[in-house]
Amino acid sequence: MKSNDYISWNDYFMGVAKLSSKRSKDPSTKVGACIVNTKKRIVGIGYNGLPCGCSDDEFPWNREGDFLDTKYPYVVHAEPNAILNSTEKLDDASMYVTLFPCNECAKLIIQSGIKTIYYASDKYDGSDSNLASKKLFDAAGVKYINLDSKEIIL
């Protein structure tokens, strides 16, 4: 008789996204993303961090201050990193992400062919960026589903 003590696919893939987020050097917001094809195979993983070749010690991680003294002009979000790290075309793929995508990431997700977003947190719900993301996803037919995966502790 098989074991009944195993996690769901959603918890598994969100667990991979959460584990990936732990690679981020961001002291305030660690985000991870995992892209899965239609055969339930992981084809891309990413986390928020600086572009390749840029030292984590030479760029700021501040949230406040003059724009060029904050992390915002320098950090690549988890979603585009996962897309850029993907090993195949992403048509009809799903993305598991620890934080609901911003509007800039939403555009890249749509362009890549991803059709479903599973997310763990929507802490910016109602913000302009969040509303723009949802408007874009709705217009493009991309589904977004909140997962209650609090049971996955890494």
Can you offer a commentary on this structure?
There is one protein chain. This protein has 154 residues and is α/β, with parallel strands linked by helices. The chain has helices at residues 9-21, 78-84, 103-112, 128-140; strands spanning 32-36, 42-47, 94-99, 116-121, 143-146. It has four helices and five strands.
Provide a quick synopsis of the model.
With 154 residues, the chain is an alpha/beta fold. The chain is 28% helix and 18% strand. The protein has helices at residues 9-21, 78-84, 103-112, 128-140, and strands at 32-36, 42-47, 94-99, 116-121, 143-146.
* Shape verdict: globular
Strand composition percent: 15-25%
Q: Number of DSSP strands?
A: 5
Number of discrete helical segments: 4
Helix-strand makeup class: alpha/beta
Radius of gyration, CA atoms, in whole angstroms: 16 Å
- The pLDDT mean sits at 94
Q: Give the SSE order as H and E letters.
A: HEEHEHEHE
Q: Kindly, what is the distance between the CA atoms of the first and last residues, rounded to a whole number of angstroms?
A: 29 Å
Unreliable sequence segments:
none
Strand order within the widest beta sheet: 2-1-3-4-5
Considering DSSP H and I runs of 4 or more, what fraction of the residues is helical? 25-40%
Q: What distinguishing features does this structure have?
A:
single chain, five-stranded mixed β-sheet, 4 helices, alpha/beta, 154 residues, globular
